[in-house]
Amino acid sequence: MVASVAIVTTIGLAPSTAGAMPHPAAGLYTAIDSVDGSNLTLRVVGNASHARLVLFDDSATLACPASASAAVVVGSGSWDVNQLDVTVRIRCLGEANPPDLPLTFEYLPGSDTIVSGGDTYVRA
Question: Phi/psi at 5 (nearest 5 deg)?
C-alpha cells in the first residue's frame, strides 16, 4: 500500500489555484475495492469550479482484465455541490488500456468520505 501512496502523491497534481479555496473533499483517501478486495488510493485536488483526481488500484480486475494489473486512473471535472463528475483515463500497467469513461464521485461531508461505484474512500 505504501507504493500506491507514493505513486499517487508524486504524479504531479498541484494544489488548487492560488487564492481559490480548495473544495472540502480535497485530500488523500484510501478504500478496499468492493469487487475484488484490491487497495485503492484516491487523491483529489482543486476547488469548487475545477477538480482533478488520480486513483491507483493495485489490482484492477475489471478495468484491466487480461492480467488484473495495477492501474492509474486520472481525470478532471467540476463539483456540483458535493458531486464530482469526471471523465477518466485508465492506464493499465502491463496491458492495453480501456477507453475513457465517465465516473461520479460523491463527497459525504457528515462522514468526510467519498463514495463511487460501491466503494467508500476514507481520508488517509
Answer: -65, -40
